[in-house]
Amino acid sequence: MTFPGGRSLEDTEGNAVMVHRSLAIVGALGLALNLLGCASAPPPPVADAGAKPALAPEPVVNHTPADARPGEKIEHGELILAVGETKQALHAQHHPHKVLETRKVPGTFQPPAMTEVKDFALSKSDLDVIHPGPGEYVHVMEGQRHGYNNLTIGITYTAPGGAPPMHTHMGEESHVLLEGQKVLYALGEKMFVMEGPYIVNIPPMVPHSFQNLDDDVAELVVIFPTNVWEYDVLDYFPFATPEAKALAEEAKQAKPQPEGK
Predict the structure, then answer these.
(1) 201 alpha-carbon distance from chain centroid
(2) What is the secondary structure of 115-138 as a DSSP string?
(3) What is the pTM of this model?
(4) 103 in Cβ contact with 81 (< 8 Å)
(5) What whole-number distance in Å separates Cα of residue 97 and Cα of residue 164?
(6) Domains (range + CATH), the chain
(7) How buried is 212 (Cβ within 10 angstroms: 0-12 exposed, 13-18 middle, 19+ buried)?
(8) pLDDT, tens digit, for every residue of 97-139?
């Protein structure tokens, strides 16, 4: 059969077949490209359940060696004082360790008038920052600088594994931790682990230190019934001993205790 224009039935059927095949090829190519695009797209990242938390930025000390006045020595944000024979003899009555130095908050200050709200209400950013040891910073509210007669408070930034040097205070001290973190203590001749929330009583002149066993920063609140921040550093670091390392490892492996236990 011949159609107008001279085309035969066979020509028309052939054209239809070619169109059908072309459409099929185009569809197949589209599907292949689509599959290729899906295959090349990277899979979404999977959260690592065992990943350690990102730590808060380390604080920055606000007193530097350049701030020292003639005859003064400032290191890691602290005023460093030599220890005389009288203080060494006093310490010898309480423990067998040698005193290396005394540390205080540097800088002169003008006591607040205690007439404005800002004299009574402080932000952490208003406080001096010191860096007593590896992984250990303290925001210090020294009472005499902020209108207190019998109170000094510190808020620590204790990184995982961080610890201050072994030290003593002339007066008593209290540690408060509100989070459920584990902290290794050296208190006199005793070594033990505490899991927050807790309060620890540290008597006057008793050598002590603490080490964060958690994977996140610990913020301890340390409290003194005096308006002066001062401590004496000793020539002994307890957490390098086999006993301390074994105790720390045992505490890390132990399951957290339910609150209130």
Answers:
(1) 23
(2) -SHHHH---GGGSEEEEEETTEEE
(3) 0.79
(4) yes
(5) 16
(6) 65-253 (2.60.120.10)
(7) buried
(8) 999 999 999 999 999 999 999 999 999 999 999 999 999 999 9
